[in-house]
Amino acid sequence: MGNFYVGSEIGQLRRVLIHRPELALSHLTPSNCQELLFDDVLSVERAGEEHDVFANTLREQGVEVLLLLNLLTETLNVPEAKAWLLQTQISDYRFGKTFANDVRVFLADLPHKDLASFLLGGLSYSEFPMKSSSMMQGMNNPSDFIIKPLPNHLFTRDTSCWVYGGVSINPMAKEARQRETNHLRAIYRWHPIFAGQDFIKYYGDEQKAYDKATIEGGDVLVLGKGAVLIGMSERTTPQGVEHLASNLFKHGQAKQVIAIDLPKDRSCMHLDTVMTHIREDTFSVYPEVIRKDVKCWSLTGDESGAVKTKEEGYFVTAIEKALGVDKLNLITTGGDSFEAEREQWNDANNVLTVKPGVVIGYERNTYTNEKYDKAGITVLSIPGDELGRGRGGARCMSCPIERDGI
Fold it and tell me: Which domains are present in the chain?
């Protein structure tokens, strides 16, 4: 089952990890959704149906689809993995010794699918059947969470990203997402698909405080030909980029990292919400953000892990050089300035390329989809009225594990 290799953003996609959102969304309410990084509450059933269309669209394109809930369930079948996850996610410092122990005892007896479901989707005090002698139960309301839901797990792109022959298991910037990383650490270490396979872990496999060196996969674009493009957003810091770059160079997996500075705001959460790679010489961009004067650096290095940084001029020129193409074709978000802003908010630029010139995107972004069509790009459209409210499109919702280079 080897072949963990992602050589580009546009080569034939072969295997992908996605997450069908269920329990976590049913725990979203108007009073907690902001804290859980959602702008709104979603219709759970509808979001699930839309996600199924997404999964089937991938399968129809010959892509093998792995589902996070299944992978986590199967990982829990490995006793060592189960013990580690219970210890890590239900830690004594998070809950106090007495209550942590009670919660672990309750969870340890559950069928593994239910346990995985609670770890991903959250567990409220009202759903916890035991009477604990700890003060925690008396101090909290029934609707408070023992385990907070992880609705953002839907966006499997961010928690880990595969770059050439290895994976970065990302230290996440926001507290609401940090527990996601442990699920991926366990899966890549113990799940039978990955255990004992030959791939590199560049970054983030140990559990420690990474302080300001955070990075999320939505900001990482594998350009191909040994180059990687990374956006420094609200959630990916220069410190995080330098760490990942150093490890890419150390393992001889990349020759160059191009880092670009992005506005630190919600609508431009990650680089892929404003720019994605569609065909070798073609990118989709949101021009309001991806402007000529965007600051850009080139990072290079060698097996020593030392990183040399040089400020570059126009980022498009840097990408053209890295890809060896004469001129990049930039397809901008469609419609007038109002429509473009609306469609960018609904992830018109956040498309998932399945093979060169074929992308999956939300059907509601009619103006942008029309522009793709005119440029000879095939759009396989999926419904996203509910899914899109989480502020993420098809690229955000997918973590490629195997993809051809260019």
Answer: 5-70+151-403 (3.75.10.10), 71-146 (1.10.3930.10)
Sign of CA dihedral 161, 163, 168, 170: negative
Distance CA 226, CA 193 (A): 26
Beta bridge partner(s), residue 96: none
> In Å, how far are 44, 84, 222 from 51, measured between CA atoms?
11, 30, 25
Catalytic annotation, pick one of 33, 161, 296, 396: 396
Who's near 386: CB < 8 A, 6+ residues apart?
A: 42, 43, 46, 47, 50
Residue 212: exposed, middle, or buried by beta-carbon count in 10 A (0-12, 13-18, 19+)? exposed
Residues 6+ apart with CB under 8 A from 109: none
Please state, in angstroms and rounded to a whole number, the distance separating the CA atoms of residues 333 and 348: 7
CA distances from 138 to 99, 100, 314, 347 (A): 12, 15, 59, 43
- What is the DSSP pairing of strand 227-232 with strand 352-355? unpaired
Ranges of residues in the chain whose predicted pLDDT is under 70: 1-2, 37-40, 266-267, 345, 390
| pTM of the complete model beyond 0.70 | yes
- Per-residue pLDDT reduced to its tens digit, 73-128: 999 999 999 999 999 999 999 999 999 999 999 999 999 999 999 999 999 999 99
Q: Output Rg (C-alpha) for the chain, integer angstroms.
A: 21
Q: At what angle do helices 366-374 and 337-345 cross, to 10 degrees?
A: 100
Is 225 in contact with 254 (CB distance < 8 Å)? no
pLDDT of residue 1: 43
| 396 belongs to the catalytic site | yes
Task: Give the Cα separation of 98 and 92 in Å (integer).
Answer: 8
- Max Cα distance, the chain (Å): 69
